[in-house]
Design a protein that fits this description.
733 residues, mainly beta, 6-stranded mixed beta sheet
Length: 733
């Protein structure tokens, strides 16, 4: 019986080949195996679908290659649907794997045809199925291919692969990947070529980026870059995050309110925010910083800008956002008042100081003319030995007038009674300007004190506080300090060594505070100071000798006015004398400087946006910290993912994205081909494979060892001239 079955296996090789699924079963026209029923006794070979037919009988009695090709023609390797010429008993579920054949003894095998858990446990992993007493691997055993027993044996010339009988030798040719590329950019190799799928794709030159700047990044495109000139932050395609592409962060180019003294649309901040984490000084005379903070983004400087409402020219420092860290000071000096224009939020935890330092004025403070212009008057000259001592200078004025300088009289001769009065010798500067701080202005200097009899100089007047404006389109937070205080007047010089018959010199008047203007989209808790400087004290005067009896101290200077933005105190005049001389006197004290204007404006919230030339314009994220693509056309990678629901145009991206919500790219297979012929799925002779792992059919007679291939839609006219039953490569005898 077994000998007969082996002969039948040789005769029905092509039939059995077509009846099992192999890699060739991917070829259009091959049908899969269909099991039948159970064999009835007395029917040596029931056909598929007959009563009592077994799965194995069915496999031997069907047309193994009948089906439909890609061109619609049918294939029938056996030429019909008749049963195979030899029938065998199919295995049953009993312990006797085979029924006894007529005139032969019962088969010795008594194991199940299909392995159960006990079988598997008895065999090694390399041959896990116990079949008829032998451990086999049904995935590659030609005698038990896809199942246990003779019915699963492959025909002569066939091989077993993945539990399927193949009629194409060791394996049927399948299409393979022949090219892997990036949809945009390139892989990180010389020339940007990709060697396999899944490699990262990045820009290789500036022209590949919407921003016009490709950033060379280690491990991404440091090898493949041919022209990358960008720097700074980059997206997932290694393109710089700057206009005209997608910026790194959104800003508020349109303030929610109209700022005072400047037009925000006329100026452009840097692309990134600024953190001042050191103590640094800006001069509006040199228009430059001294001691700038290492590694931090400097503001864009616009110098000598005319104010929208007139007044002194200003310097504008434009920031994308501004943070002054705790313990650090931004000092502002120079000829012009200074506007800090913040196109975003500001956090002030440290100090911004535009105050005068002694007689040196703050930013934009001037030596205003005495009187109505706000300058303190200097102490008047006098004749030594008459009844008037040296006067102190008047304090500078701004929001209020400065204090007057002290002027002392005495009785005119030595030894006379201690009599006399104190009057104002030099007047303080007048109040001027407005509480709106429009135009922005610095304070005014105090007047100098009069010199003494012996030529001892009067004290210098204090400088005025600077003009300081902070306008933020967003909020201002933090509990830092904003200062624009006037400088203190100098003390009158003392004669050394002491000299008889000498009037002391007058002290200088204090400078006034300057304008402070704060504007933002919120209230703030900043500490504000625009105080006047204190007047200087007068120096000592001496009578007929320099003994203590004839030594007369000078008058004290007056206190400067104070303004914290919530409460104010007026400045004081110099003096009065604590003691008065009989024929000579101490110098008069300088008047205190007046306080400056402080104004806080709260406007509407800003209209955040992304400054770019892209259309449609990218949108800000919810936290106003990043710009997001809104369409594929915004992304250098060509794919916007719409992860935040921000898209207003077509967004076809998915999967991994960068901070701008553009899809990051990896290489993918783009070309497939057959080593012989063409994929059996093509619909024309010029068609190309569209995937890997597709069965390949011969497309020319010369590709077949028989010299003939069957005609089908994938071969050119006349290229395949054979006929008859085709094999797994579409070759015919």
């Amino acid at each position: 019986m077994m000998r007969l079955l082996r002969r039948l296996r040789g005769i029905a090789g092509v039939v059995v080949f077509g009846g099992v699924l192999g890699a060739c079963a991917q070829i259009a026209g091959l049908t899969s195996y269909s099991p039948g029923g159970t064999a009835a006794e007395g029917d040596a070979d029931p056909g598929a679908g007959e009563a009592g037919a077994t799965p194995q009988d069915a496999s031997l009695s069907r047309d193994v290659t009948s089906g439909t090709r890609a061109d619609g023609s049918s294939r029938d390797a056996s030429g019909g649907t008749g049963d195979a010429t030899t029938n065998t008993d199919a295995p049953t579920g009993s312990d006797d794997a085979w029924n006894a054949d007529a005139s032969e003894p019962a088969d010795a095998a008594s194991l199940d045809a299909v392995a159960d858990e006990e079988d598997a446990a008895a065999c090694p992993a390399t041959a896990p199925t116990l079949c008829n007493g032998t451990c086999v691997d049904e995935q590659n055993d030609v005698d038990n291919c896809g199942g246990c027993g003779q019915a699963f044996a492959c025909a002569a010339g066939q091989s077993c692969s993945a539990g399927q009988c193949l009629g194409c030798g060791t394996t049927c040719p399948l299409s393979t990947v022949t090219a892997t590329t990036c949809a945009a950019g390139g892989c990180n190799t010389q020339g940007g070529a990709c060697s396999q799928a899944g490699q990262g794709c990045y820009c290789t030159q500036d022209s590949a980026c919407k921003s016009g700047n490709c950033v060379k990044t280690t491990g991404q495109n440091d090898v493949s870059c041919t022209n990358c000139t960008g720097t700074g932050a980059s997206d997932g395609f290694s393109c710089a995050l700057v206009a005209p592409g997608i910026p790194e962060a959104c800003t508020a180019p349109s303030f929610g309110y109209t700022p005072s003294n400047f037009t925000p649309g006329s100026y452009t901040p840097p692309a990134t925010g600024t953190t001042i984490n050191c103590s640094t000084t800006y001069s509006s005379t040199s228009h430059a910083f001294t001691g700038w903070c290492s590694g931090q983004t400097a503001p864009t400087v616009y110098s000598n800008v005319a104010q929208a409402g007139g007044g002194h020219a200003v310097d504008i420092l434009a920031f994308a956002s501004l943070t002054v860290a705790t313990g650090n000071t931004l000092t502002l000096t120079g000829a012009n008042p200074i506007i800090l224009a913040v196109y975003g939020a500001a956090t002030i935890a440290g100090v911004i100081d535009a105050s005068a330092q002694g007689s040196t004025p703050g930013a934009g403070a001037t030596t205003c003319a005495a009187g109505a212009s706000g300058g303190g008057a200097s102490g008047p000259a006098y004749t030594a030995g008459t009844d008037a001592g040296a006067s102190g200078g008047g304090g500078g004025g701004l929001a209020v007038a400065g204090g007057g300088g002290d002027f002392s009289t005495y009785n005119g001769f030595d030894g006379g009674p201690v009599t006399g009065t104190d009057t104002i010798g030099a007047s303080g500067g007048s109040a001027h300007g407005t509480d709106t701080a429009v135009p922005l202005a610095g304070g005014c200097s105090g007047g100098a004190g009069a010199s003494g009899t012996a030529g001892n100089a009067g004290g210098t007047g204090g400088g005025g506080g600077g003009g300081l404006q902070i306008s933020a389109s967003g909020t201002i937070s933090g509990s830092g300090t904003i200062k624009s205080n006037g400088g203190a007047g100098g003390a009158g010089a003392t004669v050394s060594p002491a000299s008889a018959h000498n009037d002391g010199a007058g002290g200088g008047g204090g400078g006034s505070g300057g304008d402070i203007l704060i504007e933002s989209a919120s209230s703030n808790s900043l500490t504000r100071q625009s105080n006047g400087g204190m007047g200087g004290a007068g120096s000592i005067g001496y009578g007929a000798d320099t003994t203590s009896v004839n030594t007369w101290p000078g008058a004290p200077g007056g206190n400067g006015g104070t303004n914290s933005g919530g409460s104010t105190a007026a400045p004081a005049n110099g003096g009065p004398m604590g003691a008065r001389g009989q024929s000579y006197a101490g110098g008069g004290g300088g008047g205190g400087g007046g306080y400056g204007w402080i104004r806080v404006n709260t406007g509407a919230a800003p209209a955040y946006g992304c400054v770019t030339a892209l259309s449609p314009t990218p949108a800000c994220n919810a936290g106003h910290t990043a710009c997001l693509c809104v369409a594929d056309s915004d992304c250098s990678s060509g794919k916007c993912a719409n992860s935040s629901g921000q898209c207003t145009g077509t967004c076809s991206g998915s999967g991994a994205t960068d901070g701008a919500d553009c899809q990051t790219l990896v290489s993918a297979a783009t070309v497939w081909a057959c080593s012989v012929g063409n994929c059996d799925t093509v619909t024309t002779a010029a068609g190309a494979c569209a995937a890997a792992g597709v069965a390949c059919w011969c497309t020319a007679d010369t590709q077949c060892t028989s010299g003939h291939c069957a005609e089908w839609v994938g071969c050119a006219a006349g290229a395949c001239s054979g006929s008859g039953t085709a094999d797994g490569m579409n070759c015919v005898p």
